[in-house]
Amino acid sequence: MQILITGAAGFIGQLLAKELLNDPSYQLILTDINEPPVPKGVKYPQNARAVTADLLKGADAIVDKSLDAVYAFHGIMSSGSEANFDLGMSVNVDATRNLFEALRHTCPGVRVIYASSQAVYGQPLPEVVNDSVIPTPQSSYGAEKIICETLINEYTRRGFINGFTLRFPTISVRPGLPTAAASSFLSGMIREPLDGKACAIPVEDRSFKSWLCSPKTLVHNLILSLSLAADSVPPHIRQINVPGICVTVQEMMDALEKVGGKDKLAFLTEKEDPSLRPILDSWPTRFDNTQAISLGFKRDSSFEQAVRDYQLEVSQQK
Predict the structure, then answer these.
(1) Where do the NAD-dependent epimerase/dehydratase domain residues begin and end (predicted)?
(2) pLDDT value for 176
């Protein structure tokens, strides 16, 4: 299977590429604004080709008739989009439309798996969000995502592509460095203390809730998306809320203590950030994932297990 991954230098692109390159049946084209690396330690690195491409200038260089599927992961994160409206609209919307247009004309009907976000929702929201709740984003990032979701629906309805929109929970625990995402601290407050580094939590309310998914579970659900039946969701309603779990800041701190030891809590500080709080408060914290579960998607068993999985992954890389 020939698969294109855009935004392949990013965390999710690298995570997925690492998994796919341990299976000889996948051939990957990895593309980003800067040449993306082929993940280290995979069984079949020769099955990946890295290509530098600026989607704002078009996607013809990375799109050809051999493609079986496309993962669209490129984009500017939430805080970055809010800080720079023009950049967010260009990268998150214009570049995505360019990609869809190239796919439409070169390999019509190709499967496209688009990475969206719970940020498409805004307040007021019911206690539990189901698939019938209408998205009303309260951030530039969320607005840009809902624009692209509409493009996925329309291009699929017209038969131009076979698109699926996956609305991700916040992914935690992410390895690597902090990002420009408003939710970055939800990985940092675990990752940094386990590495002996400080992390500032931008909310002082330990009952603050977040909807989370581990990297391990995310990869399972991304690969599952390759085999979803084309008619598993209506042709004009392609969005799927990917399963997550609701976790409070206190529960995350408890998991850190259980896995890393009580001394790790000393690396955390709590100080309200008024610039981030409106974005964080706009996001839903609990979903009814009946549709996704029925399609074969899975959720994490607990946040503590997600922390243990992260700790094991880090130890294996040393």
Answers:
(1) 3-200
(2) 85
Is the pTM higher than 0.85? The answer reads: yes
Let me know: does 85 contact 143? Beta carbons within 8 Å.
no
Q: Is the Cβ–Cβ distance between 175 and 310 less than 8 Å?
A: yes
- Is residue 242 pLDDT above 90, yes or no? yes
User: How is 63-118 classified by DSSP, letter by letter?
Assistant: --TT--EEEE-----HHHHHH-HHHHHIIIIIHHHHHHHHHHHHSTT-EEEEEEEG
Q: Tell me the average pLDDT across 56-78.
A: 94
**pLDDT tens sequence across 117-139:** 999 999 999 999 998 999 999 99
Confidence of residue 177 (pLDDT cuts 50, 70, 90): confident
What CA–CA distances, in Å, run from 177 to 59, 111, 185? 29, 31, 11
Domains and CATH numbers, the chain: 2-169+214-241 (3.40.50.720), 185-211+245-283+300-317 (3.90.25.10)
At 200-219, the pLDDT tens digits run 999 999 999 999 999 999 99
CA dihedral 116, 169, 228, 225 (to 10 degrees): 80
Cα Rg, the chain, nearest whole Å: 19
Please count the residues of the chain.
318
Sign of CA dihedral 195, 197, 198, 200: negative
How do beta strands 199-201 and 170-171 pair? unpaired
In contact, 222 and 167? CB cutoff 8 Å: no
Active-site residue, 141 included: yes
CA distance 225 to 98: 23
pLDDT digits (tens, 9 = 90+) for 190-200: 999 999 999 99
**Of 71, 141, 155, 310, which residue is the catalytic one?**
141
